[in-house]
Write a structure and sequence with these properties.
The chain has 291 residues and is of the alpha/beta class. The chain has a domain of 173 residues: Ribonuclease H-like superfamily/Ribonuclease H (Nucleotidyltransferase, domain 5). Helix content is 39%, strand content 13%. It is built from ten helices and six strands; from the N terminus they run H-H-H-H-E-E-E-E-H-E-H-E-H-H-H-H. Strands 1, 2, 3, 4, 5 and 6 form a six-stranded mixed beta sheet that branches. Strand 3 and strand 4 form a beta hairpin. The longest helix is centred in the C-terminal third of the chain and has 18 residues.
Amino acid sequence: MGEDGFNMAQIKSWTVSDHLWSKVEPLIPVRGRQPGREYQRKAGGGRKPMSSRRVFSAIVFVLRTGIQWKALPREFGSASAVHQHFQNWYRAGFFQKLWQAGLAEYDGMHGIAWQWQSADGAMGKAPLATECVGPNPTDRGKKKGRKRSLLVDGRGLPLSIAVSGANLHDSKLLDRTLAQVVVQRPEVTGWKTKQNLCLDAGYVGCPVSKIAAKHRYYARVRSRAEERQRVIHYRDPDSKPRRWVVERTHSWLNRYRKLLVSFEKTEASYTALLQLAAALICWRQTITIYG
């Protein structure tokens, strides 16, 4: 207890709050049953099914702490059952729906900042990966790695994520990243509704400009030095640095330790964890998600 009589115990960053669960529960996939058929549980028919909240809390625990699935504490129940639920929920599209719901909630409260969007890629190690993996340039190509390409709005909320092997250049992932925005974009009807796409110098070139135009973006490809120089000399509010928000969102994603070094073998599992992390980032902007 603190001096004022309040409980000073730190809230764990993997404890799912009641408020968040009230948003998650309606999206949980329900196991289908044949209509008209009666089901009756036999005596001694094995363990009772785990509660969905317990399973979801266990998945968030794995994502936040980065532990192995088999190392889940006993308080969460069977580790293999949790992992099986994780795979079933991904196949049902649950994690993407949770991400979309978080963006919709934020859009209704604050409005997604579509005018200034940013994209960038980030690499990470993937020592056990068998899919969506390639030689990692930061390790001189001697070790395996993965890359995620991220699109965010003007405040850093994730709008799209595409994954590949670490050896694929950022510019070659851009088309897929822009095509996989998980919510409906506003229609671009003129200058007032144009959507800017801020990119770093690694995206310089005609192909990137064509890709941006194809998806109705106005590409603004500038190095950090050029952004700084334009702010100093031109005092133009449209020239202020805006691409840093995507780098901050990559940092937010890296706080989920299961993503920092990817031990997931399949692309599906890695993508599901990314989608869950993106969903939690979005929900965190509108409600208390831990507690």
